[in-house]
Amino acid sequence: MVPTYCKFVIFNKIVRLTSKMLFYSFFKTLVGHEIIVELKNDICVTGRLHSVDQFLNIKLIEVCVSDPEKYPYMNYISESFIRGSVVRYVQLPVNSVDSQLLQDAARKEITIR
Amino acid sequence: MNSFPPRTATLLYELDKKLMVLLRDGRTLIGYLRSVDQYANLLLQQTVERIHVGKKFGDIPRGVFLVRGENVVLLGEIDALKEADQMFERVSIGDILALQKQEQDAKIEKAKSIERSLKRRGMRFPPDLVQDDFL
């Protein structure tokens, strides 16, 4: 099956409309996988990706934080909505990312513009 | 309500739930989410600001709170079971503020001592290391 993020390189018109959405589509293919989100205030949140939106806001379920002693309030929640603008890094599972495909999609996106 | 596509991170599902909101300056608010928009501006009702120091915490009642979206770091529904777990000890507002002040003073003191020892070695201390704030 072709992942959704390379589907729209096939349809030029759609590409024009959604070319900024490459990573949105990319993240959508990762729904259900365990990821680690590192925030700009150095909190590392681990969780299963529940959903993502156009701003790359991320919703995680089964959340746990790397240093619970330091962030006691994280004990109250088991799912969390993270605003896209505060994310520094996202660590992805190696096996669920086809980097070749992603690279191709990114290249195509450049040539179309 | 069903106009947004599925699997899209939306705050609409969190409406009227009791949420913990972490702000960019490190504060945590707890309240009932009454309204949201696309910027993640939040309207919270029956809000308390919860301050944690070590194993203790205190709540400052804040009433209705409108949070501008850019200040939101993360938010999550409060797990009633986890909150009832009594992991932390509740203390009065005065006590928790005093404890917080102590903690902050200790932090500033530590930063100053690092600064002093760096100065002795002829290095400058980056002043923003003292702040917890980011962005």
TrEMBL record, chain A:
CDD domains attached to this UniProt entry: LSm2
Please, one GO biological process term? mRNA splicing, via spliceosome
The subcellular location is:
Nucleus
- SUPFAM superfamilies, per this entry? Sm-like ribonucleoproteins (SSF50182)
Q: Tell me the keywords, alphabetical order.
A: mRNA processing, mRNA splicing, Nucleus, Ribonucleoprotein, RNA-binding, Spliceosome
Pfam assignment, any one: LSM
Its Gene Ontology cellular component terms are: catalytic step 2 spliceosome; Lsm1-7-Pat1 complex; P-body; precatalytic spliceosome; U4/U6 x U5 tri-snRNP complex; U6 snRNP
Q: Which SMART domains match?
A: Sm (SM00651)
| InterPro entries (UniProt xref) | LSM_dom_sf, Sm, Sm_dom_euk/arc, U6_snRNA_Lsm2
Gene Ontology molecular function: any one: RNA binding
Tell me, what does this protein do in biology?
Binds specifically to the 3'-terminal U-tract of U6 snRNA.
Which protein are we looking at? U6 snRNA-associated Sm-like protein LSm2
Traced from the root, the source organism's taxonomic lineage reads: Eukaryota, Metazoa, Ecdysozoa, Arthropoda, Hexapoda
Automatic annotation (TrEMBL), chain B:
One GO biological process this protein is involved in is: deadenylation-dependent decapping of nuclear-transcribed mRNA
Q: Which UniProt keywords apply?
A: Cytoplasm, mRNA processing, mRNA splicing, Phosphoprotein, Ribonucleoprotein, RNA-binding
Q: What Pfam families would the database entry show?
A: LSM
What positions does the domain Sm occupy? Answer: 6-81
Output the Gene Ontology cellular-component terms: Lsm1-7-Pat1 complex; P-body; ribonucleoprotein complex
Q: Where in the cell is it found?
A: Cytoplasm; Cytoplasm, P-body
Asked if the Swiss-Prot or TrEMBL record annotates the protein with the keyword RNA-binding, the reply is yes
Stored Gene3D superfamilies:
2.30.30.100
Which interval of the chain is the signal sequence?
none
> Is GTP-binding one of the keywords?
no
InterPro entries associated with the record: Lsm1 (IPR034104), LSM_dom_sf (IPR010920), PTHR15588 (IPR044642), Sm (IPR047575), Sm_dom_euk/arc (IPR001163)
GO MF terms held by the record: mRNA binding
Purpose: Plays a role in the degradation of histone mRNAs, the only eukaryotic mRNAs that are not polyadenylated. Probably also part of an LSm subunits-containing complex involved in the general process of mRNA degradation. Probably involved with other LSm subunits in the general process of degradation of mRNAs.
Q: Which PANTHER family match?
A: LSM1 (PTHR15588), U6 SNRNA-ASSOCIATED SM-LIKE PROTEIN LSM1 (PTHR15588:SF8)
Q: How does it assemble?
A: Interacts with SLBP; interaction with SLBP occurs when histone mRNA is being rapidly degraded during the S phase. LSm subunits form a heteromer with a donut shape.
| Record-stated family | Belongs to the snRNP Sm proteins family.
* The protein's name: U6 snRNA-associated Sm-like protein LSm1
* Originating organism: Aphis craccivora (Cowpea aphid)
